[in-house]
Amino acid sequence: MVTLVTCPTCGEQSAYTPDNPYRPFCSERCKLIDLGQWATESYRIPQTGIPETPEDEQ
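Predicted structure:
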């Protein structure tokens, strides 16, 4: 049985198997697009809480 997943970049269905070296992406192109989004900081992980700085401790 082949597990199909939705490509995070383009939304197409792709096989999630060892035969797909780009999983969970459908292609190298989609994988590189996603990597580029992280590299240009288009994706960001939200910060929880405000970090303490030396000025806050005074």
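Summary: Strands lie at 4-6, 13-15.
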